[in-house]
Amino acid sequence: MSSPQSDKNFGSSVAKFYDEYFVPLIFEPYAEDIARRLVTRRLARVLEIAAGTGVVTRRLASLLPDDVSIVATDLNQPMLDLAAEVGTTRPVEWRQADAMQLPFEYGSFDAVVCQFGAMFFPDKAKAFAEARRVLRSGGVLLFNVWDRIEENEFADVITTALESVFPHDPPRFMARTPHGYHDIATIQQHLRGGGFVTTPSVDTIAARSIAESARIPAMAYCQGSPLRNEIEARDKSRLDEATDIAEKAIARRFGRGQVDGKIQAHVVMAEC
Fold first, then answer.
1. From the CB of residue 258, how many other CB atoms can be counted at a distance below 10 Å?
2. H or E element in which residue 261 lies
3. DSSP notation for 84-153
4. What is the pLDDT of residues 179-219, one digit of tens each?
5. 12: phi > 0 → left, psi -120 to 50 → alpha, else beta; which?
6. Closest CA to 234 of 152, 150, 149, 173
7. How far, in Å, CA of 235 to CA of 242, rounded?
């Protein structure tokens, strides 16, 4: 599947809705998990790539010892600006950087962490090679990716609902990119291409995505992700209509009060 440039565009308007709606809806449960996987390791310096608005960064800052330095990077400066504004419990270095060409020296970090960012890398093997390059011997690359869209109920329902808004050219961002990199064999192949010779560990973890109303996931997906770019590219005036239709579809499936949907992801750990 090809991924247009708009799939990686998290501008300031998307970043605000992303942090307000998307982060608590689907990212926080996995942020806690991924940060805790590093707690027992001997670490001096940790790099986070595709940090977004800092949900994992905040967990790393609170769970890792104070003498472990954390560098958090993202391709999109508006996301980092919001992350820095929200802040962390202790100092973190925020830095704009492209995972395809990291501005760090060989062997600079004990761990490289990436939450739900690998799906956006245009050349995954190259991005993994960059992570491998900046890792010290014995270091670890730890990342997670979403499972197929059918295992992630809100994303699946909203993607289907938007077919009625744009029947001749339905927005497929969610299926194409966030949920388009779920095949474990392909991930392992890309890791080998990036220089990770040992077989990675992979855990598939299901969780629940809970919101007080159907409006919240509708706003999260339609206005707090690059799906918004796809909707607006088709007809900017129909963004609110698309959000309303997504809300109605969620309500039909999950009810009009609190909504509760399954989410599922793979957590991958590759040792140097």
1. 12
2. strand 259-271
3. HHH--SS--EEEE-BTTB--S-TT-EEEEEEES-GGG-SSHHHHHHHHHHHEEEEEEEEEEEE--GGGSH
4. 999 999 999 999 999 999 999 999 999 999 999 999 999 99
5. alpha
6. 173
7. 10
- Residue 13 identity: S
Q: Is the C-alpha dihedral spanning 207, 210, 216, 218 positive or negative?
A: positive
Determine the Cα–Cα distance for residues 9 and 50; give it in Å rounded to an integer. Answer: 12
The structure tokens listed for 174 are: 């969610």
Per the CB < 8 A criterion, the answer to whether 124 and 118 are in contact is: yes
Residue among 172, 146, 147 at smallest CA distance from 159: 172
Nearest to 111 by CA among 95, 127, 132: 132
Q: Rounded to an integer, what distance in angstroms lies between the CA atom of residue 259 and that of residue 195?
A: 43
Specify the residue for token string 């392992």.
Answer: 188
* Domains of the chain and any CATH numbers: 5-271 (3.40.50.150)
Tokens linked to 272? 């140097």
Banded model confidence at residue 15, pLDDT cuts 50, 70, 90: confident
Percent of the chain with pLDDT over 90: 90
How confident is the model at residue 16, as a pLDDT? 82
The pLDDT tens digits for 71-102 are 999 999 999 999 999 999 999 999 999 999 99
Instruction: Write out the DSSP string of 200-236.
Output: PEEEEEEEEEEESSTHHHHHHHHHSSTHHHHHHHHHG
DSSP letter for 26, please.
Answer: I
